Amino acid sequence: KRCVAASRNEEGLVQVTQEQIAALLKLQAIDSECARLNKQLDELPQKMAILDVRHKKAALAEKRRTIVGMHKDTQTQLAHAEGEDADLARKSKVAQDLIDTAGGDYRSITLHSKELSGYQKRRDTLVDEIAGYKEKLAQMGKLEGEIDAIEASLCAKEEKLIAEYRAKGGEILARVNQFKPERDRMVAFVNDSKLLATYERIAKAKGGVALSALNENACTVCRTTFDHSRALGLRAEAPLSVCPSCGRLMVIDKKYRG
């Protein structure tokens, strides 16, 4: 009993009235309903659908960044290959001109003919490489177009879901806000900052349920049953005590007054 009394003194419950308790009970009922509505708001299917769409958009953005990087690399490779081909074309012309002007200098003709043949072989290889780079760029361009289309579709879907969420969520929030005047009235009726702070602290720690009651020698919330001596001690502290087990504020009906 000394432990309970100490708790009561710490919580400042000694002078609590029946009217204040009634206001606290009403306050808890309001808070419980608001918590239920807020949970309903969090569980709206549109919210999860919006998160899913945004996840897909983020994945698309990552894919786009990869493609943009590949596109840039391929363009660099293409430019390098085309530059090399242009350089080989220039060298081939020079070699051909030297052959044409060599006259009977077979040694010069043979030398430049070999150069010309090597240039041509490399240019034949470059033809395939350049074609491959261009085909790769075309494929990436097509893929970028597909990403644009998918992204546009996702954006449209997101806008629709947001509108639905705001409409449905707005209805729920309006219902929550309807309780505010009554809640403010109950807070004003309790008119005890320490008691209200205790209620808020316990509610936060106990999943929104700060109040219990003594019924048949047991806490109506945590279901702990107290022996006769402890129950008598709790009843003597009517109208409000603290559950020795769960720490919630415990309402003691006046018929149990010791």
Tell me about this structure:
The chain is mostly helical. The chain has seven helices and four strands; from the N terminus they run ααααααββαββ. The chain has a four-stranded mixed β-sheet with strand order 2-1-4-3. Helix 2 packs antiparallel against helix 5 (180-190). It starts with a helix and ends in a 7-residue tail after the last strand. Residues 1-10 have low confidence and may be disordered.
Which secondary structure elements does this structure contain, and how are they paired or packed?
Blueprint: H1 2-11, H2 18-42, H3 45-100, H4 106-178, H5 180-190, H6 193-205, E1 211-215, E2 218-219, H7 228-235, E3 240-242, E4 249-251
Parallel strand pairs: 1-4
Antiparallel strand pairs: 1-2, 3-4
What is the total tally of β strands? 4
Question: Biggest β-sheet, characterized?
Answer: 4 strands, mixed
- Number of helical segments with 4 or more residues: 7
Shape: rod-shaped
Order of helices and strands: HHHHHHEEHEE
